[in-house]
Amino acid sequence: MRKLYIFDTTLRDGEQSLGITLNINEKLEIARQLVKLGVDIIEAGFPASSPGDMDSVRTIARKIKGAVICGLSRAVEKDIDCCAEALREAEQPRIHTGIAVSPVHMEKKLRLSPQQVVETAAAAVKHAKKYVSDVEFYAEDAFRSEPAFLVKVLERVIDAGATVVNIPDTVGYATPWQYAELVSFVMDNVKNIGSTVVSTHCHNDLGMATANSLAGIKAGVSQVEGTINGIGERAGNTSLEEVIMAVYSQQGLYGVEMGVRTREISATSRLVSIITGVPVPSHKAIVGANAFMHASGIHQDGILKEKNTYEIIDPEIVGVPKNMIVLSARSGRHALKHRLVELGYKLEQSDLDTVYKNFLRLADRKREIFDEDLHALMGYTGKENDGISIKNISVATNGVSTATATVTVELNDKTITDAACGNGPVDAVFKAIDRIMGKSIILEDFNLYSVSKGSEAIGNAIVKVRCGNNGLVVGRGVSTDVIEASGKAYVNALSKIK
Ligand SMILES: [Zn+2]
């Protein structure tokens, strides 16, 4: 069996596409979880794209051990210099450089002749090799390139020292058999291919990213690139959790082995969703809330007689505990801790005290506490709200759409109250908070959805705001009261704006 390397680009392809700016603590939290999941390579960012990205790649390179840390760069010397600088303290650094190889990209975007592209590609790899031994080359838009030309480029970059060559379907145009055919063509015709790892990088424009990646693995690639929950440019990237579980379920078919801890999949998906503010659809494969639910009578009957009738994956394998446990205000500290541990949370005693307090507050308002509620509770601990918290909100509505909100906020140990009118209660709350903070905030997006079922369900609010030169910042708040959840989310976002 050959080893299949899992290359995660949630923090690069994923973040880049969302238009949001995750702060360094958020990126570190995701990177740490990716190490727990056991991915082999973490693409941490594109250092030359902004000073912020440079900083975060540098910090991840310094602090995250146990995976290759990779930075993206164009085939441009100063990009590569930047990337090398950001990766200087990495335990296992990798520079990922490359250039487009399809006729349309070379002619219209790069305005370079094919020969110039070959020379630029080889020169970039050589330059990167001066800094690190592990250099990956991406042949952008490889799927729409002339296969014979692709072979020529790959031979040259491998000669120049590329340790990995990536054959992306950048625009998500391939079907699985076509993609497999291209990979086979590369395997059969690139003379020096034996000395490198070949990689897939597929986009989901036609809903085939996972299928194409699997076709690539079957055709011989040893590295697969993707993101958690499939977030990424346009229709998204390959969902790593889908590829991992497809391979896991039929390992013999692919003839590869992975070093992934599948039980961390569920926690990783949840963390990425919480931090990016991108909800996971309930029907999403592997990580959707309904992925392991059997609703129809016939299916339930089958499952009760023999699980294998309708269940291809034991939910516990991806970290979803089997038995349903419902907690309530009568549940003690021990029961809460026990369930949280089953759900994959590790708790210090001091954390448990805070969590238990929040749990009781929630149980006061909501009789039954489900796993989803606990995840919401754990995802929003309030500790990330640097010095700002909401003490009280009261709203008076007059007529259908106008409302007045009075909000009390504790800001750096001072208690401040202010009021504002708005177009509906949530708008009034946000405006009152704006007045307290004295900042001019642009609300770009606001979403509210319920975490579990029933009228008592927890509301999960996600806001995206912009302030001055800061990028888009995501804030999240949960509460059984939707207005409070919204206010908390808004304050959470503001606390991230420096
Ligand atoms: Zn991509």
Structure description:
The chain is of the alpha/beta class and about 500 residues long. It has 4 domains: about 1-275, Aldolase class I (TIM Barrel, Alpha-Beta Barrel), CATH 3.20.20.70; about 295-320, no CATH class; about 325-380; about 390-495, Alpha-isopropylmalate synthase LeuA, regulatory domain (Double Stranded RNA Binding Domain, 2-Layer Sandwich). The chain is built from 18 helices and 16 strands. The strands form 4 sheets. The protein has an 8-stranded parallel beta barrel with strand order 2-3-4-5-6-7-8-9, surrounded by 9 helices. A 3-stranded antiparallel sheet has the order 11-12-13. A hairpin with a 3-residue loop joins strand 11 and strand 12. Helix 17 (about 425-435) runs parallel beside helix 18 (about 480-495). The longest helix has 17 residues, at about 350-365. It starts with a strand and ends with a helix. Bound molecules: zinc ion. Zinc ion binds near residues 13, 201, 203 and 233. The site of zinc ion (ZN) has 6 residues, from loops.
